[in-house]
Amino acid sequence: MARGRVLIIDAVEGIAGSLADGLRQARFEVHVSATAREGFASATNLLPDCIICDPALPDLPGYWVARRVRTEPSRLATVPFVFLTEDDSPPARLQGFNVGADAYITKPYRIDDVVGQVGALLDMVERLSGARDSYAPQSSVHPSAVRGDLAHISLSTLLTLFEMERRTGRLKVRRDDGAMAAFDIVNGCVERAVRDDAEGDTVETAREVLRWTSGRFWFRAGPFEPGQAARSDPPLARKIDSITAILLEAYRRDDEAHR
Questions:
Q1: Which of 76, 179, 189, 203 has its CA 20 to 30 A from that of 243?
Q2: Burial grade of 152 (CB within 10 A; 0-12, 13-18, 19 or more)
Q3: Assign residue 135 a region: left if phi > 0, alpha if psi is -120 to 50, beta otherwise?
Q4: What element of type H or E holds 225?
């Protein structure tokens, strides 16, 4: 039985072929596409469990694929996304994580490292989904909690997953240098965002935290009613925004800032 379905998007036939062979030997079902448009079409049709993509594609950058995947109104938006590239520079890594990548592997690589990374990402998604199934908000059972490492799954994937599953609770994120952020989520929408104990603009907080590539996260389920998630003194004007809308606006502001 296959461990999961993996889509590889890479125009270099030799690299895509050897990677596909290695993943098949590790009992993954593998599909290969050579261009960004073909890869995105395959992703929407196949709904893979993981996508591995080279940013340097012949028609459009792989970053385009990642952004399209992350803003799809379907389960595809939560699929783990891995960039596989020769460019190991900090700007390239930052751009990859800003568009929703969960991991960044540089060439040359060991097949075992890629297999291990894919397996870790699929295990993380399974744990998150399992926590959802154990959540019983009307019972006396202690609210479910999920925790993990940002190196294994990106914040954009986490938030998208919580939106699709209409979760209610608080997501806390702590970067390795001690910086903190929190998001109060009501039925899959963000009501409030806090950065280093200061409540602020939800989109700007998300935009900042989306850049974090290392650290830990914790999610503690509610329940609480909209308007009761948290309070400030004096209270800020607050509205509940969909996570998809917040991510899209954060990406738009980032694009605008780098023009």
A1: 179
A2: middle
A3: beta
A4: none
Q: Which amino acid is at 124?
A: M
* Distance (Å, whole) CA 184 – CA 66: 26
Whole-structure pTM value: 0.65
d(C-alpha 231, C-alpha 229), whole Å: 7
What is the identity of the amino acid at 71? T
Report the alpha-carbon distance of residue 125 to residue 53 in Å, rounded.
Answer: 19
Shared domain for 24 and 73, answered yes or no, is: yes
Verify that 95 and 188 share a domain, yes or no.
Answer: no
Quick one: 115 and 11 in the same domain?
yes
CA distance 154 to 249: 17
How many distinct structural domains can be found in the chain? 2
Domain interval for residue 89: 5-125
Q: What is the pLDDT of residues 13-60, one digit of tens each?
A: 888 999 999 999 999 999 999 999 999 999 999 999 999 999 999 999
